[in-house]
Amino acid sequence: MSTLQNRHEILFLYDVSWANPNGDPMDENKPRIDEETGVNIVTDVRLKRTVRDALMELGYEVFLREERGEDGSRRTKEDIMIYYESDPRKVLEQCIDIRLFGGTFALKGDDQNAFSLTGPVQFKFGRSLHRVKVELIKGTSIMPSAADKRQGTFTEVYVVPYSFIVFYGIANEKAAAATQLTEEDLEAMFKALWVGHKAGTDVITRSKFGHEPRLLVDIVYKPGTLTHMGELDKLVAFRSEKNDEAIRDISDGMLDLSGLVEKMAAYKDKIEKVRLRMDGRLRLVPDVNAALEVPVEPFTWSKEI
Amino acid sequence: MKVVAFDLWSDYGHFRRFFTTSSPLTYSFPPPTAVRGIVGAILGKGRDEYLLATSGLAIGVRVLTAVKRVRWGQNFIFTKGTSGQFDPTLLAQRKGNAQGMVRTQVKYEYLRAPRFRLYVGGNSALLEELEALLREHRTHYTVSMGLSELLADFSYVGTYGATALPPGTYELVSVFPVEILDPERGLENVLRSGVKLAKERAPVYLAPDRTPLLYQDVVLEMGGQPVRVTVSEKVYRLDNGDVVYLWPPVSTLIPASR
User: Fold this and answer.
1) Could you say which of A55, A290, B154, B208 is the most buried, measured as most Cβ atoms within 10 Å of its Cβ?
2) Are B149 and A124 in contact (CB under 8 A)?
3) DSSP H stretches of helix in chain B
4) In this structure, are strands A284-285 and A253-256 parallel, antiparallel, or unpaired?
5) Over the Cα atoms of chain A, what is R_g?
6) pLDDT tens digits, residue range A68-101?
7) Which chain A residues are Cβ-neighbours of B65 within 8 angstroms?
8) Best residue in B68, B75, B106, B129 to probe A by mutation, most A CBs within 10 Å?
9) B64-74, pLDDT tens digit by residue?
């Protein structure tokens, strides 16, 4: 299987209602907020975690996986230890996440000890398209205790009532050669991005429940053009008549893609095609299918989901 | 000498200071070693080639917007197992200790909305290639602001002739090492209200095996303004009038035998 030949530029938007998109573990697990602008930030590792978990559910082998069970001993991974420590090429062969995002690992019997690959697919930190509000929700919980004693405690969780988040990423064809990333891998990642935010086990814990993927755009450049537009996340805007902090639903506004459409017109000779997946409740201006001057296609997995 | 200038910006940046380990702090600007990496990424030089490939280029850095920082905690995988080997996994038993820590929290420092103008000087064919790529917004590898996830964008500014200036008093727009200042009168003209100078010790040259060859105290104005200083070593005036300090090519300072 040949490695990725085209550069891809990725735009992914999802929203979160009454949940914590990405807590800061060193700040009481509060959602990350840019104090200067009131914009909600989500780290790239949060997104990659969701992708990895979704890929696992789709049946792919993932190197950096969540431990399950009390002591993590449920999985019999003695075999994996043997695979991985013997040959890093095997890791690349088997683990899709390392081909996508890169990784660093130990090599037994190698003095260098660190074998490291930069991932061809990189995402910037995600951010909300509007200022968000952070709410502190207080509640009580019952703790198990000795018989005939009632033991309760107070809990506090921080959530955002609503946050419409945009992620921007690039898949680089040159770096893909180093990790053997293929078209099929990338396609699986797109699928994982979508289903991971829709139904992944990871985002249906209480703190993450209420995620909904809204728009996925994959811009495929012609091979050898060596170019990409850059900062696609700056070319989209959420227009709402409501105050930023009062936005509660995707129907409270419209996603304005005119900046993106305009820039794509300037790059149309370099773009091979665009692939789109959109949620039915998202309202777009302008109508992308009509406005884009490049061929628009659905993803190969579009019908399955 | 010919100098190619281009701007680099992003939402966040991180150029780790060499002395920080578990609480990563960032430089306020990309050190020349990082600029070589960025130039290497645009030219498509891999991790093992770019230091050598760019060793003949002179490098300058200008801070374009006031330096702002943010800090936040991040959840990382604890990479040390009882085996003493580096093993980034979340499987507890792989660490040889089921009760062992699988995650660690690290407080990261980032530059907020950084924007720099990078100057790359020289006469090699490499410079022409760089100019051609920059003009069309083309790049081989993805360009980032220090860390791979901090995707950066860039734009070509111009190509200028650069004339070496003798020691004297100049309005410098770029960062510069403290040692080029005239020992007596270096900062005599710099002080006026609003000027905020900072000094950061940064690596300047790396050997091809990434051993640092030289550290210098680098001076910058935190608001990105030009500063009027008296220098005792040469600086360059570009065709557009800007005076910049350029770190000379590696080969002129570090003997090849090193």
Assistant:
1) A55
2) yes
3) 32-43, 50-53, 125-135, 250-253
4) parallel
5) 21
6) 544 444 444 444 545 566 567 777 888 899 999 9
7) none
8) B75
9) 999 999 988 88
